[in-house]
Design the sequence.
């Protein structure tokens, strides 16, 4: 792809793809510190998808596949990066601290929140696009799929909750203590600056 002057030309499709990728990554990076806005956007996308399914009264197999995928993402989001069962088998003394003198190890997710959000949003968009193709509207008795998904969800979450109880970890930081610097040290530094 060289011209006579030795200057390399880039095909327009490759240039468009690179520009689009760069712009998309820019906006994705800007959305990272805004979790509430990101999740509200995903909620809007999910509601549009639900409205589409309700209005066409079909694509239940696509919705079932989407539900299984979202369940898999949820399990990854709730699971620790290093599984205590596997780590306990590899080490002799166990992985999690059992005494107060043991080292504190914070909960690190297998699937971080941002990647969880991105994967769910992308899944809803892809599922919506799939509803535009009538060949994917397989006739099926949807209550059976719904019952099967609910049973799968309950059994999977039961197993996950028992795992959380057994290894004593909580994947959320709601209600956990947050330590801040003492006010006494801040007050003493401000009184020193007045002297």
Sequence:
């Amino acid at each position: 792809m060289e011209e006579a002057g030795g200057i390399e030309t880039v095909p327009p499709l490759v240039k468009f793809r690179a520009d689009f990728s760069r712009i998309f990554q820019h906006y994705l990076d800007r959305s990272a510190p805004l979790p509430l806005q990101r999740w509200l956007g995903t909620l809007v996308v999910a509601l549009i998808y639900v409205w589409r399914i309700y209005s066409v009264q079909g694509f239940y197999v696509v919705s079932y596949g989407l539900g299984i995928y979202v369940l898999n993402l949820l399990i990854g989001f709730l699971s620790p990066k290093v599984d205590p069962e596997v780590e306990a088998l590899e080490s002799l003394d166990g992985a999690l601290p059992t005494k107060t003198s043991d080292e504190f190890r914070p909960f690190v997710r297998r699937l971080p929140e941002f990647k969880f959000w991105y994967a769910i949003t992308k899944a809803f968009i892809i599922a919506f696009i799939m509803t535009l193709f009538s060949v994917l509207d397989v006739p099926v008795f949807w209550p059976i799929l719904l019952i099967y998904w609910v049973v799968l969800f309950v059994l999977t979450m039961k197993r996950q909750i028992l795992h959380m109880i057994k290894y004593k970890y909580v994947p959320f930081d709601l209600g956990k203590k947050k330590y801040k610097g003492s006010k006494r040290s801040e007050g003493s530094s401000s009184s020193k600056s007045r002297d």
User: Anything to note?
Assistant: Residues 44-172 form one domain. Helices lie at 12-31, 35-56, 60-78, 84-90, 113-130, 142-167, 183-194. The chain is about 65% helix and 0% strand. The chain has a mean pLDDT of 83.
